[in-house]
Design goal:
Nucleotidyltransferase, domain 5; five-stranded mixed sheet
């Protein structure tokens, strides 16, 4: 396998991140002569790695052609651990998802989960060919050491110091990158969708997590714990015990799972048999959006209280952008309006800052893209794992 030179990596990185990059754009961006850029592009096209696609109109002169990464050149495996399941996705090198396999599990013993992982990875490597897989991205909830790719602690999976990167790379001889799931989502969002430098990313589903980017750098913390907003205690007198062992944590009070529990507790209190005790989170948020009770009031309260916690954190961090992901976004304005109201109630208005709130660009597939982009964003920059 042959590595590329630095200029070739830079060219590929710019083409990968931008959807309308031309030769002239590359020349200006890298301060390299058009002739040198053309020579580099010719080599990459000869290797079938870069294609010329649609044509841009030009004021005078010849039309300019858009460059893009050949999506068929290689593939990426992305693995996301959910609550009681793993999603294993295969994508093209441009991030287009080809397939996703979901495997449910009830066990949490590390050895059994490692066996499940290796069986699924082995199947996909055989199906697509190991030489056609650029790398494996693994996104896990909890505390992840991004330096050595180990899962330090996962409150959902009950893992401690599991050396996943070393284990999988030794077994399959394919590059592996492991990261926290919410950090992975933020990285995907910034790499492909949102061009922001300062962001707080909030993910609300079975738990509540966040990731923080300050001045274009994701803040991990000394112990890789930065962003664990779900374990911010908001009600010390609560009887709701969090998976971390404390009482009254934000996610133990207002996660999508707790919202669902509160809906059914309200039905029980009123002596009403719920039509369906197995409503999905999305169905609950759809009912809240329609104004149906008790869904609406419970979702409204949770949205406001989550906003209050975020507002307090923003007083410390002074971040002007928030991206929200997870099933909660299906509640649309019921969530966003009250979430913003909660922030406004806590943030110090005299600071004069404006907070922009956005939903994820990846919708319900954000978790899959998070794991996939761990590899894509490290193909041509970062770890530069791509080889010809």
């Amino acid at each position: 396998m042959k590595r590329l030179n630095d200029t070739e990596y830079e060219v590929l990185e710019l083409i990968s991140k931008n959807q309308s990059m031309t030769r002239m754009d590359l020349s200006l961006e890298l301060n390299i002569s058009p002739a040198a850029i053309s020579k580099t592009i010719k080599k990459l096209m000869d290797e079938l790695l870069v294609l010329e696609d649609d044509t841009l109109s030009s004021k005078g002169g010849r039309p300019r052609k858009i460059l893009k990464i050949n999506p068929e050149y290689k593939k990426v495996i992305g693995i996301n651990f959910g609550s009681g399941f793993i999603d294993i996705s295969v994508s093209k090198i441009d991030g287009t998802i080809i397939e996703t396999r979901r495997k449910k599990f009830q066990f949490k013993a590390p050895d059994k989960l490692k066996t499940l992982l290796t069986d699924e990875i082995g199947f996909l490597l055989e199906k697509y060919g190991k030489n056609d897989i650029s790398g494996i991205g693994l996104a896990i909830n909890g505390v992840v050491n991004t330096k050595d790719g180990s899962s330090i602690f996962s409150p959902h999976l009950k893992w401690n110091n599991l050396k996943l990167k070393d284990y999988l790379e030794t077994k399959f001889e394919v590059p592996v990158i492991v990261d926290n799931d919410v950090r992975s989502m933020l990285k995907a969002e910034i790499y492909r969708a949102k061009k922001l430098s300062n962001v707080m990313y909030i993910y609300i589903k079975d738990g509540i997590g966040s990731s923080i980017m300050i001045n274009d750098k994701i803040f991990e913390g000394v112990h890789f714990c930065a962003g664990e907003i779900g374990h911010f205690v908001v009600n010390p007198a609560s009887n709701s015990k969090c998976k971390c062992g404390k009482f009254g944590c934000l996610e133990a009070e207002y996660s999508a799972n707790m919202i669902r529990n509160k809906v059914f507790w309200e039905f029980e209190k009123q002596g009403i048999d719920s039509e369906n005790k197995y409503l999905t989170y999305k169905e609950i948020f759809d009912k809240a959006l329609e104004g149906e009770e008790p869904y609406y009031s419970i979702v409204k309260e949770a949205s406001t209280e989550i906003g209050k916690t975020v507002g307090n954190i923003l007083n410390v961090l002074d971040i002007g952008n928030i991206i929200v992901a997870g099933d909660i976004i299906h509640a649309k304005n019921v969530f966003f309006k009250n979430f913003e109201r909660g922030i406004d109630g806590m943030i110090t208005q005299d600071f004069g800052g404006v907070v922009n709130i956005y939903p994820t660009e990846f919708g319900d597939d954000v978790e899959k893209y998070g794991s996939i982009f761990l590899i894509i964003m490290n193909l041509f920059s970062g770890e530069k794992i791509f080889t010809l």
